[in-house]
Specification:
The complex is a heterodimer of chains A (315) and B (495). Chain A is 79% helix and 0% strand. By secondary structure, chain A is an all-alpha fold. The chains are: A mainly alpha (315), B alpha+beta (495).
Chain lengths: 315, 495
């Protein structure tokens, strides 16, 4: 287990290093000077030069890369060009929306997907199975931003149960904040739950056909008992993989949903920063997201090893 | 029957009690939606119009200021005297004005603010406004003397810009996040990415304001903006980004639609030095190929005023020159043939993000196609547009709205992106700056408008409309936008 963990840690560090280089280079080649953008069309050349100096843009690319990486290692992500506040504070603020939103959506997604998938698999071919398969097919097909707009129309504009978007902040009360995140979380969760339910169902069906389940049945367990005691645990590997991928996706991929509900999360921060050429923010947030994805994958790898002893022994 | 009636009466009484209770005191807080969030709150350190939208006349004030009709009225300076040679201005400041930190605003602060804006290392986006200042002198605590190096007839106008507001020296270090101004509102909270909250300044020197609290909420997506207004999450949305939704608001008794003018001349910019556009006949052919009304209807859903020159129609000096470039595709084809391009030619049309450009670009492309000019459209982000079109001058055609007030002077700048800079025009601008007599200024401005219109420098499309939507009970919001501001000083709820 230790060697397995160490190997995973090594590949994690390499991924991060490579990612940092790629991100930096990609941002370097993006056209558009941040200082010119900020000063607009009436600015004089000497004013732009003064601002470039102030932003620290007039040093070589290598120097900037080294400054950026060494800064990050010490927890200093630099200062936003446009907002002029430390990037780490901005990320910190936005994180309090994006992270709870991703967790909320993931929770909803698993709460829907697990029972639905297990139900469909245990009663294969039944009306319930057909229903689950039909609804999840729809859930995968509907784009989440469209579903989000539909929900705004129904629950915010017509019924007035929720506001159309925005976030009051956690200091405004826990339930108020949860309420503000509910519509976004549901719209994010719907397609994820559909995918997850389908994966759960097929993984369960696969394991239900395996020899060890047949042996369990031969020993006298009924189908239900065999499913709960043996098949479920073995079906968890593909399900965990999907959950891991989904969490990374939910954290980084909520850009459109954050725009629909005008939530000040990480996705919108990246989106805004790209158009404002706030390159230091883009670099740092993307790097952070890469870090999150890598860590999630690492945890999933470790989780595999926990549910599947063979992986531990093999290494 | 009787029971039912009694039920109604009780219900009605309860309803009256409830609504009556709420109606007793008029609301004193307002939530205003805006599309763009300011990057920071220092109007003297960036071009972003979003900064002025939040702080202009609310948090910061200048010596003079714009009124809603675009005229210049006294601000921190209650009056001024101009010397006969037009070179020195003596400003008399209002007394008893304090900054939000409690310190007094006096002549030294004015000197500091103007000197800072024109300094060598200044990052003021409109540094040119201050270029003619030779010196600023504090004569006593309430009197400032500004000496110009040459006459500048627009000096009082220049001092009304958000870029010329008076700031406190001790607040500069943190001004971008903690703006300390003299205005009727102080910044109380900024949740970056979401909203900015302003609270009433109890020590405000000027006339009383009726709002206690104002929140600016930033919603960039047009669909989300629509939903926020419909769900009444915001009480008003200024510069509403989706004109197609305005008729729906207009039909809803809960809302009123504000339609006014802006300082945004929307033009089809032409690269005057790039062949074949260096030939005036070609530029004239482009102008006649364009049906302005079709663009206003198609791209702006009818909101916008046709213009025939680079000047705002609501300005008294404006002259209507649209006839010079009337829609006439036959004439356009004839001009192309005369210039040796009977079979037309191909050029680029580079479009920045706003919808007037993206939607208008499609319409213009098809109109030009009809006379034989093929355009290759490329959609650019602002930063790319600035680099390629504005600085690189690598374009044939582009669509952009010039939102700075009274900016006809850009036609005198040779290196400006559309590359006109005709010496005769420069002479007109020099004459304008040396003239303070209003009637003479008007005639010079009109000559300038005619010159660029007759030279077909650009194809002039329309004056961008200022469209907003507000709760029907809100009074006092600006319909026009002489500068990008949401002036809250006169805003109140009617009940």
């Amino acid at each position: 287990m230790l060697r397995y963990t160490l190997k995973r840690l090594l590949s994690l560090s390499v991924s991060l290093l490579v990612a940092s280089i790629i991100i930096f280079l990609a941002i370097e080649v993006v056209p558009g000077d941040p200082a010119s953008y900020m000063l607009g069309i009436n600015a004089q050349p000497d004013t732009i030069a003064a601002l470039r100096e102030e932003l620290g843009l007039n040093v070589s690319a290598v120097e900037r890369y080294v400054n950026w990486v060494s800064g990050m290692l010490t927890g200093n992500f630099g200062t936003s060009y446009t907002y002029r506040t430390p990037v780490v504070d901005m990320i910190g603020d936005r994180m309090w929306i994006s992270l709870p939103l991703a967790l909320y959506a993931l929770l909803l997604s698993t709460l829907i997907a697990f029972p639905a998938g297990i139900l469909a698999a245990s009663k294969r071919g039944s009306v319930a199975d057909t229903l689950v398969m039909g609804i999840t097919q729809l859930g995968v097909a509907i784009p989440n931003f469209w579903f989000a707009m539909l929900m705004v129309l129904v629950f915010a504009i017509n019924l007035r149960w929720f506001s159309a978007g925005g976030f009051p902040g956690w200091d405004g009360g826990f339930w108020l904040a949860v309420k503000a995140l509910t519509l976004p979380a549901v719209s994010l969760a719907l397609p994820q739950a559909s995918i997850l339910a389908r994966v759960m169902r097929s993984a369960l069906l696969d394991t239900l056909g395996e020899d060890f389940v047949r042996s369990a049945r031969a020993k006298g367990l009924n189908r239900r008992q065999a499913l709960w005691r043996h098949a479920l645990r073995n079906a968890m590997i593909p399900v965990l993989t999907i959950i891991g991928l989904q969490f990374s996706f939910l954290l980084a991929g909520a850009i459109i949903i954050e725009n629909v509900f005008f939530l000040p999360g990480l996705g919108r921060l990246v989106f805004q920063s790209i158009s404002q050429r706030d390159l230091i923010v883009v670099e740092s947030v993307v790097m952070l997201l890469v870090f999150a994805v890598v860590i999630v994958n690492f945890s999933v790898d470790i989780a595999y090893a926990l549910v599947d002893p063979r992986l531990r022994r093999r290494s | 029957m009787t029971n039912m009636k009694t039920g109604y009466v009780i219900a009605a009484a309860v309803a009256i009690a409830l609504t009556g209770g709420a109606a007793q005191a008029a609301k004193t807080d307002i939530v205003i939606g805006l599309q763009l969030e300011p990057p920071h709150l220092d109007p003297t350190g960036a071009a972003a119009g979003a900064i002025d939208q939040v702080v202009y006349s609310n948090v910061f004030e200048g010596l003079t200021r714009f009124a809603s009709d675009g005229s210049i009225i006294p601000g921190l300076a209650k009056s001024w005297e101009i010397s006969d040679d037009g070179l020195s201005y003596i400003f008399h400041l209002n007394e008893g004005v304090t900054f939000h930190d409690g310190s007094a605003m006096d002549a030294e602060d004015v000197k500091f603010s103007l000197d800072r804006a024109r300094a060598e290392d200044s990052t003021n986006a409109q540094k040119a406004l201050f270029a003619d200042i030779a010196s600023v002198e504090a004569m006593d605590l309430a009197t400032v003397k500004v000496t110009l190096s040459k006459q500048n007839g627009s000096f009082l106008f220049n001092m009304a810009w958000g870029d010329a507001v008076i700031v406190a020296p001790e607040s500069i270090a943190d001004i971008k996040t903690k703006p300390i101004g003299t205005g009727p509102f102080v910044l109380s909270n900024w949740v970056q990415g979401d909203r900015i909250e302003l609270a009433k300044n109890p020590d405000y020197w000027g006339s009383a304001i009726s709002l206690d609290k104002a929140t600016f909420k930033f919603i960039s997506d047009p669909t989300a903006a629509f939903a926020a207004v419909m769900a009444e999450d915001v009480n008003a949305f200024m510069a509403f980004p989706a004109p197609e939704n305005l008729p729906q608001f207009d039909a809803d008794p809960r809302f009123k639609v504000l339609v006014g003018s802006t300082e945004g001349e929307t033009i089809l910019a032409i690269n005057n030095k790039l062949p074949p556009f260096d030939n005036v006949k070609i530029r004239e052919a482009v102008a006649h190929a364009i049906d302005r009304q079709a663009i206003i209807d198609g791209a702006m859903f009818g909101y916008g005023t046709p213009i025939g020159t680079h000047f705002a129609p609501h300005n008294p000096a404006y002259i209507d020159l649209t006839a010079l470039s009337a829609y006439d595709p036959e004439k356009s084809k004839a001009l192309l043939a005369e210039a040796g391009f009977a079979d037309g030619f191909t050029t680029t049309l580079k479009l920045p993000p706003p919808s007037y450009a993206r939607r208008g670009g499609e319409i213009i492309a098809s109109q030009l196609k009809a006379v034989g000019i093929t355009v290759e459209i490329s959609n650019l982000e602002w930063a790319q547009w600035l680099e390629q079109v504005f600085r690189g001058k690598d374009f044939g055609l582009s669509i952009v709205s010039h939102t700075e007030p009274m900016d006809i002077g850009i036609y005198g700048r040779e290196d400006y992106y559309f590359q006109y800079g005709k010496p005769e025009f420069q002479a007109l601008m020099a004459e304008l700056n040396a003239t303070t007599d209003p009637a003479e200024r008007t005639s010079i401005l009109q000559a300038a408008q005619t010159m660029i219109s007759e030279d077909y420098v650009n194809a002039y499309l329309f004056q961008l409309a200022n469209t907003g939507v507000a709760n029907a009970k809100i009074e006092g919001l600006w319909a026009n936008a002489p500068t990008q501001a949401v002036d809250l000083t006169g805003v109140s709820w009617t009940d």
